[in-house]
Design a protein that fits this description.
The protein is an alpha+beta fold. 35% of the residues lie in helices and 18% in strands.
Length: 497
């Protein structure tokens, strides 16, 4: 995240922050420490300030030994910051010209350590990072971090205010049928429904009254939507099929419609059927029986189950599954508990809802713990499709997985064709020398693997948002940069460096 040789090329972003520190440690240091720790990690550079155009210049440090001592005294003071994540290896002192600077590498905190907060006040002193800088976390964001701390996940909670009859028996029997089809002659096949629910984690004995009550997982999996809302007021499931640009959606399924149960089990199989409806299945026989399943089918099942078992059902906006012409997008409330890098690498299973994961495992869905996302990537690579995209959003926490059915070669051909069309169109227009110069300035400022906002580019050029946006669009059309994100969260990144 920091190399001294690249100092003049760096700019502040969601993982880099500079501070003067001319009169000692600035108070804002600790809010930035909290913000980086509660997100992806980052680098704080002391003895540096930001110029008007976004570039950096050194201001130097006075008495770096005392500054370093003060830093360690403060970071180990629980009244200043809740948890010290650093070792001596995370602090570096550099000489840059005549000035000394201090570089602090802040790692991302583990879920068990979050929230990292300042001033001894968890709800007022917890920060996160966005492109505008550090921001105070909301009460809801802090509560979400606290929920993720415990080993017993929230779906294991015994709902002592509910009776077993809160669960939908038709859904329970449908689940049992799938379980027995997957594991024929299982020892639990002869159990009555109450004992069976207890065995799978959908019901549990309450210590308070000695009675069997549904667990949160049982309610989510088998309850009716209106009863689920008693425990999870923000609960919402939404499937949208968007195959015709002339129509807002060609198919939609919502948990709140009232014409079906609205629970997770029924949602999974209804939505899965819609997602794979158009997938071409190669003709294959197992003996004399046709096999209508492929690695792609299994990957989509894994993606859908992963979306569900990692949802924080207390957070707003709910689960949204979108089926588009050339892609499937799965969104769920809640961040990635293991961190994005670990999730992509695989090997560690840390679901937000362990009991729900167990229930899906028992019917043959999501069997390989910790390998789900790497397996999906492997399947997409084997098909020659572009890599899946994993996006983390904050405020509120949200995880997005986009599975595109676009071939890598097709994408390159399309991009080349689009660029050719744009070039031909551009040649017919008179491009001013000023526009050429401004486009070159943007390209010279952009660093590899860093995403920039329209506002940042506007500062570089000292122009308005509209002009900045138009220039960025020209560069996208030229094939020099790419754009990502929705309208409000759109970012731009250079290609090929």
């Amino acid at each position: 995240m920091f190399e001294l040789s690249k100092f003049n090329k760096y700019r502040e972003d969601n993982r880099r922050e500079v501070k003067r520190a001319g009169n000692g440690l600035p108070d804002s240091l600790w809010s930035t420490y909290s913000a980086f720790a509660n997100c992806y990690g980052g680098v704080i550079i002391l003895g540096v300030e930001e110029n008007k155009d976004g570039s950096w210049r050194t201001t130097g440090l006075q008495g770096e030994e005392k500054l370093l001592k003060d830093f360690w005294n403060n970071i180990n003071n629980p009244q200043k910051v809740s948890h010290n994540l650093l070792t001596e290896q995370d602090i570096r002192i550099y000489q840059l010209g005549e000035d000394t600077i201090m570089v602090v590498h802040v790692p991302a905190a583990k879920r068990e350590q979050k929230p990292i907060y300042t001033g001894g006040d968890m709800f007022r002193g917890t920060y996160r990072r966005n492109w505008e800088g550090d921001y105070h976390c909301t009460f809801s964001e802090v509560k979400a971090m606290l929920r993720d701390q415990t080993e017993d996940t929230m779906d294991m909670k015994v709902l002592e205010n509910m009776q077993i009859d809160a669960l939908n028996m038709e859904t329970i029997h449908a689940y049992r049928n799938r379980h027995m089809a997957y594991r024929s002659e299982h020892v639990w096949e002869q159990l009555n429904d109450l004992d069976y629910l207890e065995r799978i984690g959908a019901a549990r004995l309450s210590r308070a009254d000695g009675q069997i009550h549904p667990t949160a997982a049982g309610l989510l999996m088998f309850g009716d939507e209106y009863k689920i809302l008693y425990e999870y007021p923000e609960y919402f499931l939404d499937f949208r099929e968007l195959l015709d640009p002339e129509i807002r959606w060609t198919d939609r399924l919502q948990s709140s419609s009232g014409d079906w149960t609205g629970n997770l089990f029924d949602f999974f199989f209804r939505v899965y059927g819609k997602l794979v409806r158009d997938i071409k299945v190669p003709f294959k026989l197992d003996g004399v029986v046709r096999v209508d399943d492929t690695h792609v089918h299994k990957a989509i099942r894994e993606a859908l189950a992963n979306c569900i078992v990692n949802t924080d059902f207390y957070l707003p906006r709910g689960i949204v599954i979108k089926k588009e012409t050339d892609s499937i997008v799965l969104e769920n409330p809640g961040g990635i508990r293991t961190g994005k890098n670990q999730m992509l690498k695989g090997g560690i299973s840390d679901p937000r809802n362990k009991a729900l994961m167990k229930m899906f495992n028992m019917i043959g869905i999501g069997e390989r713990a910790g390998s789900g996302v790497p397996d999906i990537y492997s399947v997409w690579e084997s098909q020659g499709w572009i890599k899946p995209q994993v996006i983390e959003e904050y405020s509120p926490d949200r995880t997005i997985l986009k599975l595109s059915f676009i071939g890598v070669k097709s994408k390159k051909v399309t991009e080349k064709s689009d660029r050719k069309k744009v070039t031909e169109k551009s040649d017919r227009k008179k491009v001013t020398e000023k526009t050429k110069m401004q486009k070159q300035v943007i390209l010279s400022r952009m660093q590899p693997n860093i995403k920039y906002k329209v506002e940042e580019v506007a500062v570089w050029l000292d122009v308005g948002r509209t002009r900045s946006r138009n220039l960025l669009k020209l560069l996208v059309d030229d094939g020099k940069i790419i754009e990502t994100g929705t309208t409000k969260m759109k970012r731009y990144q250079i290609i090929g460096l």
